[in-house]
Hints:
The complex is a heterodimer. Helix content of chain A is 34%, strand content 41%. Chain A is of the alpha+beta class. Chain A has a single domain (2-146), classed as Nuclear Transport Factor 2, Chain: A. Mean pLDDT of chain A is 89; it is low at 15-20. Chain B is α+β, with helices and mostly antiparallel strands. Chain B has a single domain (2-153), classed as Nuclear Transport Factor 2, Chain: A (Roll). Chain B has 3 helices and 6 strands, in the order ααββαββββ. In chain B, strands 2-1-6-5-4-3 form a 6-stranded mixed beta sheet. Classes of the chains: A alpha+beta, B alpha+beta. At the A-B interface, β1, β2, β3, β4 and β5 of A face β1, β3, β4, β5 and β6 of B.
Amino acid sequence: MKHFILTAVLFLFVVLAGSTFAGDKEDVMATLNSTIEAFNKHEFNAYFSNFVDDNTEFPYVVSPLRHDAAMWKNFIQGTALLAYVNYHQQDSEVQVYNGNAAVITGYYTFSWMEKGGQMNYQSGRASMFFVKQDGKWLTVHMHFSKMF
Amino acid sequence: MKTLKNVSFYFFMVFLIGLSSSIFAQTSSSSVENDIIALTYKIWKAENENDMATRNKYISDDYTEFNSDYSTRIDGKTKNFKLSDANISGGKSLADEMLNPKVQVFGDVAILTYNFAGVIKKNDGEVVTSKAKSTRVYVKMNGDWKLVHANFGFDSINNN
């Protein structure tokens, strides 16, 4: 009986510890995944809650210009006019530095349908940069580039 | 009256400390921005002069890169250098400039974004221009800024 209790306590400890100390890599990936989910569902408040105030972006081929936070907000909110959007990212790699900064790189597909039914498709490479502020990972910069 | 003097002095000191720390923070951030831009020009200069020891000093071992020559990410400093060093023998850079640079600083991390403009002289003598949308991520390690990731992306306008 004693052994059983000891084993149960140890098992519980291992499970709890694993959950408590989920790594930075897992945490920052969770932030990215929730950002993608919010974008695909047009949940803009949830989407922007994962960003710092002065975020910047290099968008895909639409412009050689870097977007500031206001430009990016207009662009993202403009997707509300689309009938459907789907961003998917795969083969993501995470680099974490000093426990409070992370780079995620990967490959993405982005498809969207206009109200008239026209489907569009884009694919490319994504570099994303995050910082941890007050215990929360936030997006600072995103760079989407063409697959050459 | 003496108490009022003391209170005034106290408020003056608090104001002075607040003002100086604000000025210091701005100067400090601006200084990092200048350091990061200067470091990038230093890396370009080292590459153009084949001073690989200087360049290598500022690149992290786990450096990753997206560039315009290969579709997928190149992982690690060694693999990146093997490819970029071979590429240098294809011509000589006549000019490298960053247009519209912006540095975002978060403690020991800095992100530099800019539009790259360059001029290259090929081995056959032809002079061509080069451009890109570039992001560089630097992290301070043991007192030195090191490049940990770069995305040298496609600039759509007039590119063929």
